[in-house]
Specification:
With 204 residues, the chain is mostly helical.
């Protein structure tokens, strides 16, 4: 019970830091904050080590700031036109364009869901290799995709339809859920790198 309470407290704490880091940066820093949040939630899931939330968050925030911010801004730059394209197609009954927009949204969202945890977990020297790896992972794990998309949907529904104040726990909860679902996907690569410790909670 004590361990569960500690993990819950860490989850709420990282949620608060994510909000602070995102909004103080006028949402430009949301990408770096999300990568850092995933670094912390991955640590929360481990069994054998305590989570030093604040130093771990800001270490990851600093290390991954440039690539996470650039990818976040690129996602926004692609997402906004897709949003307007979808509404234009919907208002004009352009079925092909509607389908194209939906497929584009799916690829954009699933890429975003995978990118920040991958960035938090693996050190990749070249941005092109990181993006290529994320594309491969996000398009070869269909069942996991359903689970992480469900976690995102749960987070959004929780905030919109229950109460907006739940954003104080929803982001941390989303991070824990997605980190949990991606453990099995990441495991073979972590084993190759020699970074798996059975006591840390990476078991299937």
């Amino acid at each position: 019970m004590k361990e569960l309470f500690r993990k819950l407290t860490d989850m709420i704490f990282v949620n608060f830091i994510w909000i602070l880091a995102s909004f103080l940066g006028l949402l430009i820093t949301t990408g770096a904050a999300t990568t850092a949040m995933f670094r912390v939630t991955q640590q929360i899931l481990k069994k054998s080590e305590p989570t030093n939330v604040l130093p771990l968050f800001f270490q990851s925030f600093k290390e991954n700031f440039v690539i996470s911010t650039l990818v976040w801004l690129a996602l926004m730059a692609i997402g906004v036109p897709l949003f307007f394209m979808y509404h234009y197609a919907l208002n004009n009954d352009l079925v092909f364009m509607i389908v194209l927009a939906i497929v584009g949204f799916y690829q954009l969202i699933i890429f975003a869901i995978y990118f920040f945890p991958v960035c938090a977990t693996f050190k990749t020297k070249r941005a092109s290799d990181l993006i290529k790896n994320v594309m491969l992972l996000s398009n070869t794990n269909l069942w996991t995709n359903f689970k992480v998309l469900g976690s995102l949907a749960f987070f959004i529904l929780l905030v919109i339809f229950v109460h907006q104040s739940l954003i104080l726990i929803a982001v941390g909860l989303y991070g824990v859920l997605v980190s949990f679902h991606l453990k099995k996907v990441f495991r073979p690569f972590l084993e190759q790198l020699g970074e798996i410790d059975e006591e840390e909670g990476y078991e299937n």
